[in-house]
From TrEMBL:
PANTHER family named among the record's database cross-references: EXOSOME COMPLEX COMPONENT (PTHR11953), EXOSOME COMPLEX COMPONENT RRP41 (PTHR11953:SF0)
Family, per entry: Belongs to the RNase PH family.
InterPro entries: ExoRNase_PH_dom1, ExoRNase_PH_dom2, ExoRNase_PH_dom2_sf, PNPase/RNase_PH_dom_sf, Ribosomal_Su5_D2-typ_SF, RNase_PH
Subcellular location: Cytoplasm; Nucleus, Nucleolus
Protein name: Exosome complex component RRP41 homolog
Exoribonuclease phosphorolytic domain segment(s): 1-130, 133-198
GO terms for MF: RNA binding
UniProt keyword list: Cytoplasm, Exosome
Amino acid sequence: MRQLRAEIGAVARADGSAVFEMGNTKVIAAVYGPREVQNKSQLSNDQALVRCEYTMANFSTGDRKRKPKGDRRSTEISLVIRQTMEACILTNLMPRSQIDIYVQVLQADGGTRSACINAATLALADAGIPMRDLVTSCSAGYLNSTPLLDLNYLEDSAGGPDVTVGFLPKLDKVTLLQMDAKLPVDIVENVMQLAIEGCKAIATYIREVLLENTKQLEYRRGP
Ligand code: UDP
């Protein structure tokens, strides 16, 4: 697993925000809401509407990056992150409202969708949005007959298969599973288990960060 670093409250105007780093991959998440639904035709009387936008900053990659926004890859990743976060937010507690999650890649070195899910979890917790668990994400791959955890760009682009998992650690449930390329069936289990171990380690780290943040808030508030 690459080195993890997180920082809560990076965007002052947002209701919740966080920066999350996995090695050289660095992303920022900002959450607004629950707030009034902008497009009334999307309003639901039973649950909150969750929206998500994934973008890559123009400077986030070398000259490999083509379009910063609106391409098929960004649309797919926005959808995947939205579905993952929606599965852990208690949307039924906030009917007739909207939650907006913006995630932007500042520095890309593989595993940006995982880093964005981890940043979004922290930002949602910072915004005080009720969740059933802290969803975390990590990828794992298979290269030269060796399972690899948390691939960087070089490992990812070597052509081997890679699996991205979203995991609810307290409920012990997988909520996201994406796979690039084919993997023999007997190895899938191994690689997936490795990614789940990664998710568990990230969950431990995220809990520590949240606890430390709460302590700081308490300290600043005084006795
Ligand atoms: N990448 C890039 N330019 C792009 C898209 C991706 O340089 O337009 C790099 C970036 O480092 C990214 C990696 O390719 O992290 C792998 O991209 P993938 O689509 O597998 O998603 P990710 O692993 O970031 O979730």
